[in-house]
Amino acid sequence: xxxxxxxxxxxxxLPLFVREGIDAPVPIESLPGVVxxxxxxxxxxVARAVDLxxxxxxxxxxxxxxxxxGSEAWNPDGVVQVALAALRDRFGDQVVAIxxxxxxxxxxxxxxxxxxxxxxxxNDATLELYRxxxxxxxxxxxxxxxxxxxxxxxxxxxxxALDDAGFPERAILAYAxxxxxxxxxxxxxxxxxxxxxxxxxxxxxQDYRNAREALAEVRLDLDEGADMVMVKPALPYxxxxxxxxxxxxxxVAAYHVSGEYAMLKAAAANGWIDGDAATIEVLTSIKxxxxxxxxxxxxxxxSELLAG
Length: 308
Ligand code: PBG
Known about the structure:
single chain; 308 residues; TIM Barrel; 8-stranded parallel beta barrel; 10 helices; 10 strands; binds ligand PBG
């Protein structure tokens, strides 16, 4: 009667991987229970999500061919575009289709943009790639694009590209406060990414010692036209989720990322924690901190647990 926070399947966004050139789903060792999907198995998984009351999915693509620019990210026949079209065909408006918008899954060097001679990402040259990817994704059927590359000016560039291409109604969920985190390791297995030359993303993702900077990034993205903002990862950054929630009026998402999922699963598999109880506790705490939407690989199992 007095509980302040109620978790429901309606809070979740399910991240999904779709891989080109496979004829059966491929398990991801560091993300037990998560697979790289074929288009067909993706459609089945989304059907499960719809049945359980999960309103939205976020797609990541694993292309057959990677190149320095990540050109498969805007190929109309690229893996995510094909998947988006399949979802649109099958589910119409029953599910919100969100496309992660970045090129790291598509570049041969694993960075989120064009790399210059010094090995640094060229921010402004990269914006042109994001414009093309955004238009390809919404043309294929994405309701929302979610730029995750943390380039300066990316939201404004994408908003302009979508408006110019005749998609003023499609929304942008900005990965606004995305930290350079050790928690993305299993994700990089899932999308077959190794950053070249032992590199990292500290040049464009945020320093975890900073909180005010996250709020500045959020405000910038809103000024540029973001419709919703995200904090990522979730559990080590619940203070940021709360501060962002208190600071802005748009919907706030939090991403319970691959490493957070893997830690929970590993401990549960060893019998060191109760996995089901931890699943509900962790997700409830993210909502209590202020998230309106939670991206989580636990979305389906949590929905089943909630249904009892
Ligand atoms: C970049 C992107 C990453 C994640 C989501 N989008 C990886 C990164 O920034 O290195 C990580 C998600 C997770 O760990 O679950 N396209």
